Amino acid sequence: MGIVISLIVTFWVGFLITKKYKPQPVLFMAGMLLMFAAVALGLGKILPVKESTGSVLFDAFEFIKQTMSSRAAGLGLNIMAVGGFARYMDHIGASKALVKLTVRPLMALRAPYLVMAGAWVVGMLLGLCINSASGLAMLLMVTLYPILISLGVSRLSATAVIATTLCLDWSPSDTGTILAAEKAGIDPVMYWTSYQVPITLCVMIVVAILHFVVQRYYDKRDGHVVQATQIVAAETDEKLPPMIYAILPTIPLALILSFSSLWITWIKMDIIKAMFIGVAIAMVFEFIRLRDGKKVLADIQSFFDGLGMQMANVVTLIVAGETFAKGLMTIGTIDAIIQGAQSSGFGAVGMILVMVGIIAVSSVVMGSGNAPFFAFAALTPTVAAKMAIPPVLMILPMHFGASIARSVSPITAVIVVSASMAGISPFDLVKRTAIPMAGAMLVNVVMTFVFFYR
Known about the structure:
By secondary structure, the protein is mainly α.
């Protein structure tokens, strides 16, 4: 009975999110519904006796309160600091300066599809400093897209490359990375260097080649004639700051990697301090440029706005996802799935593939990588423990699988924004992204087993 109820509720969640319902309240309601159903059917308890409020009704809200308190003070503050820094970098134009500086070398080449493949690699590297897939895509559509078009690449090919530039959320300051590292019980920097980087390097090689082959093939099949025109400098409507501002978005990343077990170990550095230091240095740059202390101090409001947006959008989504996961665990669904996998002979490998498959399908249907990953990430430590494997072995391909699958969803923000700016159909666009992303997913799963499964 618990499995049937879980399936009905899960499909209901997917249906509502597909219909553009706000995911947080949907996940909260679904989690609480499963908890209450579990108690009513005698399948489980919401909280241990020592933590119970004395009322089943209130226990569900007590769980939400406890989860919100712990997440806001730890993981949530990390995510909020990253979001505030990103918002401030965009406000002062530093993100645009970084993108413009990095795409300049590509303008010297005249091999259209080689430049296109190289542009994708550049976009992936920029993703270390610009963690928003849709935000990075918008910047590249303004700066890089006109260059690719002027070299003779079709609109669909150029947009497909730009829309998939952050198909892996692989920055140590990415919200998903921070959550994945916490669930895996690993420091975010070590999770990045030891686990994410090896997989990412393999994916980068394969996807760059696939984009080169696939986009050129489709252009030729569609009768597109590769004809270079005069390169038009891609400028934004607003005036960019000096090019030295391009270093500002990279400062936190440099601090996080420098003051870690990779190099300088006697100085302690974390993500929150790195972001605050980055903002302070940027304010000094702004004062030197503008000579207006009042404006510099006023502009810091964008940083605070970014903090609030992350709390409202990301941290609440994580808590909502954990509430939904708690419901699934309370009603016994996770134990049933694990026992079924073990009895069917799937074992650890089969369970990992099942979890990655669920995440991938959910990402495409929901049009989001974060929503399904945040919902299911909370389950991985429990599932991994019962399968006798390290949690990172399960959460790594799930994390990357969510962002890869997001790039083939016609309703996800990065696809919709990119297609809109290029004046093409999102459905036509995902036809161009499907094969490269299928290659990325295959490499993601296979290389996870090759590198880390023992």
